[in-house]
Design a protein that fits this description.
Largest sheet: 6 strands, antiparallel, barrel
Helix content: 25-40%
CATH superfamily of the largest domain: Efflux pump adaptor protein, beta barrel domain
Radius of gyration: 47 Å
Number of domains: 4
CATH architecture of the largest domain: Beta Barrel
Order of helices and strands: HEEEEEHHHHEEEEEEEEEEEE
CATH topology of the largest domain: Elongation Factor Tu (Ef-tu), domain 3
Number of strands: 17
Length: 361
């Protein structure tokens, strides 16, 4: 009985092996590729990667970073929106700076009022008081002099009529009255002369300093509203109400790095392609007048001819596409810029990577 089971199991194993051999021997048909692989359109060409950019004077997108830090309270543009130079993009909380600016404005106004007050001197009320004090001193001098003259005349006629002590007191009172009259006259002239030129000059400097402080604070206040520096299109908005931005941009939770608060580009009827030619291929690069190029859109059969713009004559480390240096050796590339019309079966966008072939005419 035991041997029968052994033979049965062996027979099942043989059958399973034959079925597996048959199934595994069936040839599978190769799947056709979704799209044909990219190939060079030229007999001899240089292959390179390219980055689509806005068509601008420097061939770069404009990365907008605020010059001040703070919490965003309002975003005034949408991605893809066309804006003019000077148009506000977003607003940062400016309450503290607004209060400081207003304080400096009031200080400048106070300094100006003090300057006007100095230049308006003498005040007629002060001049009237000084005139009255002078008149009083002069009248008092006349009265004291009259008393002294009378006592001196009596003493001259009869020394026994007025004591020597009374005569000396009258003489002292006369000298005091004369001195008081001189002081009153000089005080009147001082009041009449108005403010001292040095006081006016000092106050003018203080007013100018207060004005400059206010203008500086006002200029800083205006930076809390970030504006477009030139006409263009908003490519990306990385700031949202409530988020914190600084001169390093806005924090991106996906890349965990700082990114520009807003990225702007030129109108996208025409775009640039910045290609990075490996330094070992630079010697094979044709002259600008003999250069022709074509880009291939990844994931499609679209080919777009390119027009040469310029060569950026500086070989730099190969970090432009990834923004990181991942190679252990120092690989360097030469940027070459082309342009094309962005009107075809497939629309391209700044920041998109494409394959570029550079050949000779």
């Amino acid at each position: 009985m035991k041997n029968k089971w052994i033979f049965a199991i062996a027979a099942l194993g043989i059958a399973f092996g034959l079925v597996s051999a048959y199934v595994l021997g069936i040839r599978q048909s190769v799947l056709k590729p979704v799209f044909a692989p990219v190939s060079s359109p030229y007999a001899s060409a240089i292959y390179t990667n390219g980055m689509v950019e806005s068509e601008q004077a420097q061939g770069e997108n404009v990365n907008v970073y605020p010059e001040v830090s703070g919490r965003v309270v309002k975003v005034l543009v949408d991605e893809g929106q066309k804006v003019s130079a000077g148009a506000p993009l977003f607003v940062i909380d400016d309450r503290v700076q607004l209060a400081s600016t207003e304080q400096l404005r009031l200080q400048a106004d106070a300094a100006h009022s003090a300057l006007v007050e100095l230049k308006a001197q003498p005040r007629k009320e002060n001049l009237a008081i000084a005139q009255a004090q002078l008149t009083q001193a002069e009248e008092n001098l006349l009265a004291v002099r009259d008393q002294y003259d009378k006592r001196a005349a009596s003493y001259k006629i009869d020394p026994r009529s007025v004591s020597k002590d009374v005569l000396d007191t009258a003489r002292g009172n006369l000298k005091q009255a004369e001195a008081a009259a001189v002081v009153a006259a000089r005080q009147y002239e001082l009041t009449k002369a108005g403010a001292w030129s040095y006081d006016i000059a000092t106050q003018e400097k203080q007013y100018l300093a207060a004005q400059q402080a206010y203008r500086s604070a006002k200029a800083l206040l205006e930076k809390y509203t970030v504006r477009a520096q030139e006409d263009g299109v908003v490519l990306a908005v990385n700031a949202a109400p409530g988020s914190f931005v600084s001169s390093s941009g806005s924090y991106d939770s996906y890349t965990q790095t700082g990114v520009p608060a807003v990225i702007m580009g030129a109108p996208q009827e025409r775009l640039h392609v910045r290609c990075y030619v490996d330094e070992i291929l630079i010697a094979r690069l044709p002259e600008p007048g003999q250069m022709q190029a074509e880009l291939a859109v990844r994931g499609s059969q679209v080919r777009i001819p390119l027009e040469f713009v310029r060569v950026q004559p500086y070989v730099s480390p190969k970090i432009e596409l990834s923004n990181q240096r991942q190679e252990k050796v120092d690989l360097r590339v030469l940027p070459v810029v082309f342009r094309f019309k962005n009107s075809g079966p497939v629309r391209l966008y700044p920041g998109q990577q494409v394959d570029v072939y550079i050949g000779r005419k």
